[in-house]
Structures are given as structure tokens and as C-alpha cells.
Amino acid sequence: MDSGKQAFQQRSLSVKLWPPSHGTRLMLVERMTKNLTTPSIFSRKYGLLSNEEAEEDAKKIEELAFAAADQHYTKEPDGDGSSAVQVYAKESSRLMLEAIKRGPTVKDEEIADKTSIHETVFDISGGRRAFIDAEEAEEILKPLREPGNSYTKICFSNRSFGLDAANVAAPLLSSVKQQLTEVDLSDFIAGRPESEALEVMNLFSSVLEGCQLRYLNLSNNALGEKGVRAFGALLKSQNNLEELYLINDGISEEAAQAVSELIPSTEKLKVLQFHNNMTGDEGAIAISDIVKRSHALEDFRCSSARVGTDGGVSLAEALKTCTRLKKLDLRDNMFGVGAGVALSKALSLFAGLTEVYLSYLNLEDDGAEALANALKESAPLLEVLDMAGNDITAKGAASLADCIASKQFLSKLNLAENELKDEGAILIGKSLGEGHGQLNEVDMSTNAIRRAGARLLAQVVVKIPGFKLLNINGNFISDEGIDEIKELFKSFPDMLGSLEDNDPEGEDYEDEDEDEENAEEGNELESKLKDLKIEQGE
């Protein structure tokens, strides 16, 4: 344990936190611009800033925050920049809140524009999930018949179209297709026989062929290869797609190959999501062909897709071309250590990464260490780190702690269902102790943590302003330890998650197995010694 602590301390000393690089400063401006233009409880009260105004404010905020932090850095006694980064983050947050409360500058022409915003979206997805027949389609789609309508976005999700309803919708879609930029056809054939569903998809595809979309959602339709090819006419005509969603679509190896074959251009693609499919290694290799052509990709999801080591390595290689990536979600696959190490080489290229989800990938210590070391040297604005369920022990925790210590904008950390124990929990807890003012959620549940590790985690997070939730459930904390922790959170009870699955008498099954093995070896040795004869010398 002492050697682990010493290694962590030595690595921490080598981290140079100030000044931030020019690229990091630009990325903070970009992140603040996004926050200023994202709807929130404040924007509902004060109004939402335009992209132009938000970008201008973000640049000014960053300059002021940098100046304040830089001035602080000249007086910082330790010289590593940790407190300067904290000032940088806090000052940015304070000034950003002021900008939000100030609200947007509204021009007369903008007021006129806002009166027509609601008319650009046609959405029938509300209400209960239901079949739709021709008569209901005539009634519900009536607004599309209005001459001069300005619908650019349509959503037919949550309504199941049979062929009769599709025949009603077809001419109406044809009449507006030249103005459409976003089409959501997710979950629109549920419960239909395969033959009818394929006819409906073919009809919608042929009607919408040629419209220039930036957003297309075909999720939750159990497409398979037949369904993908049924949408062939629409997919082949898309050259400007920025977002494509194929979630829960039965995307097998053949279906993935069909997607790769049918989409002519992914140069503008920013979001690509394949969640909950039966893709496998060969399918992942086909998806990799799409990914490596998508140089503008910012958000990639290929989670719960049955991808093993070969497919994981292929995806990792393809992702090296996506240097603008901001969000990566590869959860719940069977990558193993080899794919984890391969992925680490890609992660080192993602300077703008803000969210990374790598839970349940069978990474073990070696894979986790490779990824943590790569992230430490990149992704300065990382906000979410999820590496739950990877059999990470205290050995891997040292590298993770190093990485976490350098992530001053981290807001959510999930290391649940590993094997960190007290030693690993203490290393992680200490890494959160300085300059993590943005942190609001930590999940260290089910890690065989006992009293010492749990207490240190609680002592650290309870001091963080704005912290929301610590989950240490499912561990082996003694009753006395639970009392100590509850006392620490007595003024903030909502910040401490449930402890109902904690087992104060919990045992480490790994230690039990070792004891059993030792006992078996002892019994075997004892039986051999019984027959041992001492030979007398001459």
C-alpha cells in the first residue's frame, strides 16, 4: 500500500497544470459557448443566448478568468499551477452565470422570427404508443396539407404505420421533402408483419429520396439487413448527414456492411450511434469503415453491441481519424485488454474529449492503466469518466488517480463494480482532493471498500461546493464506519446515496479462494508426509 501511495505522489508531482495550452483555452471557450446556448432553468427565466452572442461572451469570460488565474499563479508557492486552475475554473463559472442572468440582447427582427419557430417542427410522437390507420393518418397529418407550411423537421416516432396509413403519408411527405432537414422515423412500424413493415419502409424511403437531411433517426425498427436495404434509396441520396441513429435495430454483420455500402458520404457526420445491436466483431469491422471516413465525428456510440477484441481493435484504429471527438461510448462490449490498449492510442489524439464511457469492457488493470495514461496526457476538459465493471484493482487505481488528478473539469466519475478495495479507494479519493470544483457525482459502489476507504471518500467529496451524490453502496463498511459517514453528511443527507446493500460483515471471495487453495495444498502435503520414510545413513 505504501508503494502505491508513493508512486501516486511521485506521478502527481510531475503534472504541470498551468498555464493551459492555447488549444485548451479555445476548447474552454467552445465548451462555455455550448453551456450558454443550452436550455436550462436559467434560460427559461432569463432567455437563451444566440450562438453569436454566447461565443462573444465566452471569449471575454475566458480572457478575464485566465488573467485572474495567471495573476494568482505568480503568487502560488508550490508552483505546479493546481490552485491557479481552480481559480480559472471558478472564475469562468462565476462570469458565465452572470452572462446567463444578463440574458440575450433581443432585436426586433428576432422577435418576429420567434413567432414562427413552432411551425418548423411537425411531431406526432406524443401520447401512447399505438397503431395508426388510414383514417387517423388523414386527420393527424392534416397540417402537412396546408399550403406554404414551413416544416423542416418531422417526427413520426411512437406511431406504427401500416401500408394503408403509409399510402396516406407518402404524398404529403413528397410535398414537403425539399424543405426537410431532420427526419425521425424511429419506432414507426412496431408490431407489423415483416412483409408489411418492409413495404412501408420501401415506400417512405422512395418518397423521401433526394431530400437533403442533416439528421436521420431510424432507431427501434428491428431493421436487420433487409430493413437497411429497404431504406436504400433514402440512404444513397444523403450527402450532408450530420447525425445518424441506428439504435436497437438488429444491426448484424450483414446489416452493418449494408449501411457502410449505402451511405455515399460521411464527411459531415458529427453523431453516429449504434447502441444495443448484435453487431459482433465482423459488424464492428464494417462500422469501422464508416468511422474512418467520418473525420468530423464528435459523438460516437457503439455500446452493447457484442463486440470482442478483434472488433474493438478495428474500431480503435478507425477512431484515430476522428480527432474532433468529444463523446465516446463503447460500454458493455467484450473488448478485453488488447482492445483497451489499442483504444488508448486513439484516446491520446482526442484533445476535445469531454465524455468517455468505457464500462464493462473486461479491461482489467493493464487495459485500464493504458487508457488512464493516455487520458492523462489528453482531454484537458474531460467532464465524465466511466470505467465501471472492469476488474480494476488497486494496482490500476494508481494510474487512474494520476489521470483524475489532472482533470479539473470532471463532473462525474463512475468506477463502480471493480475491485479497488480500501487501497484503491484511498488513492482515488486523494486524487479528488484539489481543484475539482466542478465534481458533482462519484460512484464507487461494489468495490469491497471498508471503513477507511469509504471514510476518506466521504471526507473529500463533502467539502466540494455543489456536490450532489456519493454512491458507496454494496461495499463492506462496518457499522461504525456507516455512522461516521452519516455524521459527515448530516447537513447534506441527499448527497449520500443509499447504503442498504452494504454488508458490514462482507468477505472478499478472492481471499476465500486463496485460503481454500492454501488449505488444499496443506492437506496434500500432509498426506505425502505421512508416508515419508527417513533413511538411515550407513
Automatic annotation (TrEMBL):
Residues 525-538 have a biased composition (Basic and acidic residues). Its main location: cytoplasm. SMART domains: LRR_RI (SM00368). Keywords: Cytoplasm, Nucleus. Residues 500-524 have a biased composition (Acidic residues). It is found in: Cytoplasm; Nucleus. GO terms for cellular component: cytoplasm; nucleus. One of its GO terms (molecular function) is GTPase activator activity. The keyword Nucleus applies. Residues 495-538 are annotated as: Disordered. PANTHER family: RAN GTPASE-ACTIVATING PROTEIN 1. This is WPP domain-containing protein. It comes from Gossypium stocksii.
